Amino acid sequence: MSKEDKFVDFDKDTKLETKEKFKKPSLYKVLLLNDDYTPMEFVVFLLQKLFHKNNDEATKIMLHVHQNGVGVCGVFPYEIAETKVIQVLETAKKNDHPLQCTMEKA
Ligand code: TYC
Prior knowledge:
- The chain is of the alpha+beta class and 106 residues long.
- It contains four helices and three strands.
- It has a three-stranded antiparallel β-sheet with strand order 2-1-3.
- Bound molecules: L-tyrosinamide.
- L-tyrosinamide binds at residues 32-36, 38-40, 43, 62, 65-66, 99.
């Protein structure tokens, strides 16, 4: 094998490895569900605190959920979406609100 062949092989393997090791993560939508009991201000507060929305964006999402039953708070890689869902559910529970949150593939 010539020196050039070795370099070509090395380059090929490196590219293949990079492709296999760094596949783009699948994205997941974090969904907020409507209910009749959670106060609107609490939902707006959560959207600001956990999803970094400003007051206008948070109010818009909250009203969308209130009127349509479900709405997207954000889109994240699996583990971040999972953490957001847990944080919403734990914060709602701690404050005695029945707010529900789930995730689905984007
Ligand atoms: N529907 C609730 C109310 O009238 C407000 C609300 C909005 C609750 C969004 C949950 O995800 C939600 N107080």
